[in-house]
Design a protein that fits this description.
alpha/beta; 4-stranded mixed beta sheet
Length: 469
């Protein structure tokens, strides 16, 4: 039976899904829609949601697309994109991809297509912005608690580097939408100014990169790379408290970017004045642009966020259930999304309708029932109990494999669930230094990406935190 052109495109997506990571597939390829295929001109037309996605695909994944299209459609296929330029008015533009080339087909393997890392600065245009393409202004629902930051953020995206809003310092409690907003700024800026070098990086990743650069005696190259960025977005900078050398290095990067009119966007869970351990020379620079506070969303904004998310995902949740979730989520956007994702999973797996009973069951497991913060001791106790080892063994200098694993998991979860700097976490877990904590967190993060059973195991431990609270 001869397959239709649409079925062949589905085969292309199936091959791509086996090659790239799940996040890359969801962020980029899942949004590509088959439009038509002309056999006479051997032209394949697909629709992409924005000019930014088109440019990103052409820059980083054109060879992968060429290979899978050749495998499914044959040789010399011309790929053309229909780019959505204005969603509100349904405006689109057709853009041709690179000319087709003859490809010696190599069997598709299960290896992800590699993009340049953030330290590969030799070729400036080959920069992966590291942005989450789902976190856009379109999906950032406006309300009284975020109107100012959202408005200013949009202005920064449209006019990066203007002195009035440079740097832009966004702060607010966990789960209020800081990461979503700063990603949205980066994505919008990249859509408008495709040639600008935009980079999102977490404070933790920046510190890991700096530590690696010191070990490899490449600090100058590290600084030079970051000085080439046009729009630098750094998340969770409160994690640098007491990281003196990291802060000193960032000072030189900040000063260079600011002097040359490059845009700097910073996010933290507290305002600059409360960043203990940060020297005045940096604090004054953090505060010289605009400081915008994101507050926890009120109940009505939570309802609006839930309604919009359900609409995007084609999910039907009764109004009374939406209201119940909004009342129970403690004003955390992250908790709202977690509840909706869990409801979707339960509904699909058990083929059941989403009702109040199911919502209450999910809420109990996904949302903290009070605001009592987790401590490092709480975390170590839970992790030790899960693995059946004692705290004394974990705090010891033993390099036994089981003890090292528990130690690393405890440090990773402490970094994730508390506001303590790495140096303090290390002191509380056996008197280790901050570099050990950073290394442990990096080790666990890498394992979580490739080991599904370990991911499930860690989720089980995290759920025990939520049930306790």
């Amino acid at each position: 039976m001869v397959k239709t052109p649409k079925a062949l495109w589905d085969d292309c997506l199936g091959l791509i899904k086996e090659i790239v990571t799940e996040q890359q597939y969801k962020s980029l390829f899942a949004s590509i829609v088959f439009e038509k295929y002309d056999d006479n001109s051997r032209t394949l037309l697909v629709q992409v949601p924005s000019m930014y996605v088109y440019e990103y695909l052409e820059q980083y994944y054109v060879h992968l697309l060429s290979k899978v299209i050749f495998r499914c459609y044959g040789q010399r296929i011309k790929l053309t994109y229909r780019v959505v330029t204005d969603k509100e008015h349904n405006l689109k533009q057709d853009v041709e991809g690179d000319d087709p080339v003859d490809i010696d087909l190599v069997p598709v393997s299960g290896r992800a297509n590699k993009t340049p890392t953030v330290l590969d600065a030799a070729v400036p245009q080959d920069l992966n912005p590291q942005l989450d393409l789902h976190k856009t202004f379109q999906t950032f629902i406006e309300g009284a608690s975020n109107k100012l930051p959202r408005t200013v953020g949009l202005s920064v995206a449209e006019h990066p580097g203007k002195q009035t809003f440079n740097p832009l310092f966004v702060f607010g409690p966990s789960g209020c939408g800081k990461t979503h907003l700063i990603n949205a700024i980066g994505i919008k800026c990249k859509e408008i100014y495709s040639k600008k070098r935009v980079l999102y990086v977490s404070a933790r990743l920046f510190q890991v990169q700096y530590t690696d650069a010191v070990r490899q005696n490449k600090v100058n190259e590290f600084i030079q790379f970051y000085q080439t960025i046009d729009v630098l977005i750094v998340d969770d900078i409160q994690e640098w408290a007491t990281a003196t050398k990291t802060l000193d290095t960032f000072f030189h990067i900040f000063d260079h970017l600011f002097r040359y009119g490059k845009q700097i966007i910073l996010a933290s869970d507290r305002p600059p004045v409360d960043l203990l351990g940060v020297k005045d020379r940096l604090l004054t620079r953090f505060a010289c642009g605009l400081i915008a506070e994101l507050e926890r969303p009120n109940e009505q904004l939570c309802v609006d966020i839930l309604t919009a998310k359900c609409r995007r995902n084609g999910l039907k949740i009764p109004e009374d259930v939406i209201r119940f979730i909004a009342e129970t989520a403690n004003g955390s956007v992250r908790d709202l999304e977690g509840v909706v994702n869990s409801l979707m999973a339960y509904s699909i797996v058990y083929n059941s309708n989403i009702d109040m009973r199911l919502a209450e069951r999910v809420i109990k497991r996904a949302v903290k029932v009070d605001n009592k913060p987790l401590t490092v001791d709480d975390i170590v106790e839970k992790v030790c109990g899960h693995y059946g080892v004692s705290q004394q063994q974990v705090f010891s200098r033993s390099r036994k494999r089981d003890y090292v694993l528990v130690r690393q998991v405890s440090m990773y979860l402490a970094q994730k669930y508390t506001k303590m700097p790495a140096s303090r976490i290390g002191q509380l877990i056996g008197g280790r230094d901050h570099s050990t904590v950073i290394h442990s967190c990096s080790t666990i993060e890498q394992r979580l990406k490739v080991d599904k059973s370990f991911l499930s195991e860690l989720s089980s431990i995290e759920n025990s935190f939520k049930l306790k609270k």
